[in-house]
Design brief:
Number of domains: 1
Strand content: under 5%
Shape: globular
CATH topology: Tetracycline Repressor, domain 2
CATH architecture: Orthogonal Bundle
Helix content: over 70%
Strand order of the largest sheet: 1-2-3
Number of helices: 11
Number of strands: 3
CATH superfamily: Tetracycline Repressor, domain 2
Radius of gyration: 19 Å
Largest sheet: 3 strands, antiparallel
CATH class: Mainly Alpha
Oligomer: single chain
Length: 260
């Protein structure tokens, strides 16, 4: 099992690749030391496995078919154990989706730092990598959220978290002098998030080619930011995106997700 651990000032996650390519997400507050910490880690490992299997079932069967009793059977647990560890069916599904999203944002922050690229471009790249790594789950989630009022709450939470992250990344560009007008940040954020949402929805509905999906996501981010950033940042973005467009195979995505 391989893993990547993040460090820094923002909440960070550990992402592990488990059996059957399950993506296990461990919360920052779950990493403690000492005897108490050992028990806590066992709790977190069980919890992460439940949520990973919930995401797998969502991918295989869709939202309506994920029931606590079926989930417990897949996990080798009893339904009361699921309730005690996480909560109701709705809480399990919501937590499974949101914690993976938070891990993506954490991953984007680390990619931004290590690759010296702005956070919005890093998030576009991160989003694409996860879509390529687990396309079935991603399609089911996207279609469920966009095409059903039942999942409006989850969609609203996703939008709120993405808005918050995008404002932080845009704020960094503003503080570094690459974006001069602070009043433009909300407009930029809305334009980029709207374009990205439409790009992934189009991919989910039409089975869009994965190479074109990356180009669509990053082109939308790049073109939008190009109207607001200075020439140095614009040139840096374009060069970074071109360097990363050489290999679109799934095998090239796995090391980048789990080995940094």
């Amino acid at each position: 099992m391989t893993n990547i651990t993040y460090s820094g000032a923002v909440p960070h996650y550990v992402i592990k690749q488990g059996l059957d390519n399950l993506i296990l997400v461990f919360r920052p507050e779950g990493r403690n030391t000492g005897p108490k910490g050992k028990r806590r880690r066992l709790f977190e490992e069980r919890r992460a496995k439940i949520l990973a299997i919930a995401r797998l079932m969502l991918a295989e069967e869709g939202y309506p078919s994920v029931a606590i009793r079926k989930l417990a059977k897949r996990c080798g647990l009893t339904p009361p154990t699921i309730y005690n560890l996480i909560g109701s069916r709705e809480e399990v599904l919501e937590t499974a989706v949101i914690e993976l999203l938070d891990a993506k944002i954490s991953y984007a922050n680390e990619l931004s730092r290590s690759q010296n690229i702005n956070g919005l471009v890093a998030y576009g790249e991160t989003l694409w990598r996860f879509l390529v790594y687990d396309p079935q789950y991603s399609r089911q989630l996207i279609l469920a959220c966009f095409n059903s009022n039942t999942h409006q709450r989850i969609l609203n939470i996703i939008n709120t978290r993405c808005q918050k992250a995008s404002f932080q990344w845009l704020g960094t560009l503003h503080q570094s002098g690459h974006i001069h007008n602070k009043s433009d940040l909300a407009k930029i954020s809305n334009l980029i998030l709207r374009h990205t949402a439409m790009a992934v929805l189009t991919w989910a509905e039409d089975q869009q080619d994965v190479k074109m999906l990356r180009a669509d996501i990053l082109a939308g981010i790049n073109l939008t930011l190009s109207h607001f950033v200075d020439s140095a940042e614009k040139r840096h973005m374009e060069e970074w995106i071109k360097r990363g467009s050489l290999d679109f195979t799934r095998s090239s995505i796995e090391p980048s997700l789990f080995n940094g």
